[in-house]
Structures are given as C-alpha cells and as structure tokens.
Amino acid sequence: MIYSVEKENLKIGVSACLIGEKVRFDASNKPSNFCINDLGKYVVYKAFCPEVAIGLPIPRPTIRQIKKDEMITVSRPDGSGDVTEALQEYGKKVASITKDLSGYVFCAKSPSCGMERVKIYSPEGNALPAKGIGVFANEIMLANPLLPCEENGRLNDPLIRENFVARVYAYKHWQIIEASGLTKHKLTTFHSHYKYTVMSHDLVAYKALGQLLARTDLPLAELAAQYISGLMAALSIVATRKKHANTLAHIQGYFSKHLQSDERQELCKQIDSYREGTIPLFVPLTLINHYLLRYPKEYLTKQAYLSPYPDELKLRYSY
C-alpha cells in the first residue's frame, strides 16, 4: 500500500549543489545521482544555497567553523567575514516558509549545510574533533524536528537510503491526514497502516505506540503530537535483517490456513535465507505479495510495510 502521492505534491528540500546548481565556493557543484536520477522522478525539489542567499559571491573565499572558547562561528579561515548570524537568520526564515516539505537532503561536511561531523578549527587553524553541525541545517532541523533529513554522502548506503525514502513517504502520509482534519479514528487507522513498518524498526516503539493510542486521558492534539513524534523516532532507526525477518514471520501467519505445505516451506525458506543474508528483502516480499493476490487479506493490503514507496525505486533490491 502506497498512500497515493502525486509528484507535484511531494516536496523535498535540498542543497542546491546536489541537484547540479554551480553554487559552491569554487563555482562547482556536487550532483547526487540518486537525488537527480532516481528520487527526482517522484518528488519536487526546493533548492537552497544559504551561502549564496546571504550574499556571498560565486566563486568566493572558503568559510569554516571556528571555535573560540565555547563559541562556534562561521567565517573565513583568518576569522574575517563572520556570517554566523546571517546563516542562522536565513535558516530560521527558510524553516518558517517550508512547512510543506516532507524531507530534506543536505550537503555533507558543509559549514552551513552539514548535518553532522562538520570540521571545526581553532582560531590558529588547527583541526578540532569534527563534531560540528552546519549553521543553516541546524536551524532547519531545530524548527522541524519531525522532518526526515539526510546527507548526500550517507545516501550512498543502501540501508540509509531506503530508510530515508520510507520516512519521507510516511511523513507525507501523516501531513495529508493532518491537513484533512485529524480525528481519533483517522489516527488509529493511520497507525494500523504502519504497525508492521514500526515492528520492523523498533519492537519497543511498536508496543509503546499501541499503548499510547489506547489512552483516553489525553486531548487529541497532545495524543497526535506524542504519536507522530514516537513514530518518526522509531522509523529513524534503521531496520535490521533480524527485525525484518521477524516482521515477515508475523505476516506469514496470516496465510497459515491457506498455504499448502510446499508453499509454506518455500516462504519459510525465503525468510530464513533473507535473515542469513543470502537474498535481498524484495525476494520474500515478492512471494508474500503473490500469496496476498491469491488469498486476499484486507488488513495486509493496507500495510505500508509491503509497499512504502514506488516499487520502481528498487530500494529493497540490494539488502
């Protein structure tokens, strides 16, 4: 089940250099093949280059994060041209006008756009532990804590790439439900669609979210806020083969009264093979979807786990 989302309605923020715009300090770009040629077929990008937006030229002198005492600033290596406040203010502005975004891809290691591990230097130019966060990116993430965010470099990892896209589609589904006027029924229905998705990421969260929705003492707005926060936190945990295999085994139980002995054995074999790492996830999922056509189960057909995003992205083919 993919919650139907037209391309023009799925908006993703992105560092402009990642989609080919020559806005870097040396007038170059850092095009991401995945962003441009794969994900780009299904989303509309809103591109930002905070350094250009605050008035820095192309090309321009490099800037870096410099730590003096406990204060981190962004400026040229010699400390001149401090743009820290300008980047912060632009980040706040973009965050306030992009509440319709369902995800964001940042440029790794950038002093303005890096999500993590940004290089920090002492005033004398010595490298300190790379624990910085891009000033612009930090403002976006602080203002939108639920927003799925990733860096271009990390998206080269097939597990992280799949996890990011799945979170984007789940968050967009939530945004649509919320915009339609949230009710307790809509909230519980939404959760029912994501039960097996949550199970494959975090079994503790799976139980906790179910218990949360059973509460009757919370106002709907507070219940919804706690729920979506818990859901997005759970989905940010990259699912393991063991957790996927456990989820697949639970789904298999829905067919226990229908499958012939050889069919049951084949599905068990594929789940075990996936657990052991000899086949990718799409193999047992393909068989489950085949059985679902033969033995329809309405509850399963609505599970986002079985089809969380367009199959054409082939994100479950490599792990």
Question: What brief labels describe this structure?
Answer:
2 domains, four-stranded mixed β-sheet, DUF1722 domain-containing protein, UCP037004, 2-thiour_desulf, alpha/beta, 319 residues, four-stranded parallel β-sheet
What does this structure look like?
The chain is α/β, with parallel strands linked by helices and 319 residues long. It folds into two domains: 7-156, no CATH class; 169-319, no CATH class. 45% of the residues lie in helices and 11% in strands. The protein is built from 13 helices and eight strands. The protein has helices spanning 33-38, 50-53, 84-97, 135-143, 158-179, 184-193, 195-201, 203-213, 220-235, 241-252, 261-276, 282-294, 298-301, and strands at residues 11-15, 44-48, 64-68, 71-75, 104-106, 118-121, 127-132, 149-151. It has a four-stranded parallel sheet with strand order 2-1-5-8, with no helix packed on it. A four-stranded mixed sheet has the order 4-3-6-7, with no helix packed on it. The longest helix is centred in the middle third of the chain and has 22 residues, at 158-179. It is elongated and about 75 Å long. InterPro entries: 2-thiour_desulf, DUF1722, UCP037004. Residues 195-310 form the DUF1722 domain. This is DUF1722 domain-containing protein.
Topology:
Layout: E1 11-15, H1 33-38, E2 44-48, H2 50-53, E3 64-68, E4 71-75, H3 84-97, E5 104-106, E6 118-121, E7 127-132, H4 135-143, E8 149-151, H5 158-179, H6 184-193, H7 195-201, H8 203-213, H9 220-235, H10 241-252, H11 261-276, H12 282-294, H13 298-301
Parallel strand pairs: 1-2, 1-5, 3-6, 5-8
Antiparallel strand pairs: 3-4, 6-7
Helix pairs in contact: 3-4, 7-8, 7-10, 8-9, 10-11, 11-12
